[in-house]
Design brief:
about 220 residues
Length: about 220
């Protein structure tokens, strides 16, 4: 606990309010950004980092289908169950799991992605919804992602956007949103085990190939 408090104090002293964050000397990388981390640690970075649009759509379909499947398994009496490590209700958590992708699409339209985008509250967007409504929202977001990437005028994945993590291309921002959903889906599986549920058809390593996610669960 003392270690956690010291780390939190250091982040606050640096004016950092978002996690994950990597600090190496005086350099800081906010968010899980494989390209920036590779540069930070002097690791050769593949110029083709990121999934091509068709592959990205396929991965979003796999991940969101699994997330919505798990969300629909959750019993309504667990809406206000609080996750132990973040003190966040399952109502908020399941919404947060899928909302980054929608905000990435919004950033493409407005040119910026803010900390507020990264941490929207479900009650301010959907209201005090149940798990079924959250799952429907996930399906809506997936339809928007598919339309944006494969429609008649697809997104320019190379367009650079302003974000609270620094400049990011649209492709990078969507990659980060996808990895974010996977990371939280793994956490959701853990939460389900804590409340006595077994996920239906959980994703395995082969489903997640090509998606960059943190190795630590929490």
């Amino acid at each position: 606990m003392e270690h956690d408090s010291a780390a939190l104090n250091e982040l606050l002293q640096r004016g950092l309010k978002a996690v994950p964050v990597t600090i190496f000397g005086e350099q800081v990388v906010v968010g899980f950004n494989p390209r920036a981390l590779a540069l930070l640690f002097g690791i050769k970075d593949d110029a083709n980092v990121g999934l091509a649009a068709a592959a990205m759509v396929a991965k979003f379909e796999i991940v969101f289908a699994a997330a919505m499947r798990a969300t629909r398994q959750l019993p309504p009496e667990r809406l206000d169950w609080v996750s132990p490590e973040r003190e966040r209700t399952l109502r908020q958590f399941t919404f947060h799991l899928i909302d980054r992708a929608e905000r990435a699409l919004n950033a493409y339209q407005v040119g910026a992605y803010t900390e507020e985008d990264a941490g929207r509250d479900v009650s301010g967007v959907l209201g005090l919804v149940d798990f079924k409504r959250t799952a429907r929202y996930g399906e809506e977001v997936l339809r928007r992602v598919k339309g944006a990437l494969t429609g008649s005028v697809p997104l320019d994945l190379g367009r650079v956007l302003d974000t609270y993590m620094g400049p990011k291309t649209t492709g990078e921002l969507l990659d980060l949103a996808l990895g974010h959903s996977v990371h939280h889906l793994k956490q959701l599986y853990q939460y389900m085990s804590l409340i006595g549920l077994e996920p239906l058809a959980p994703l395995g390593p082969s489903d997640l190939e090509g998606i960059a996610v943190p190795t630590e669960l929490f």
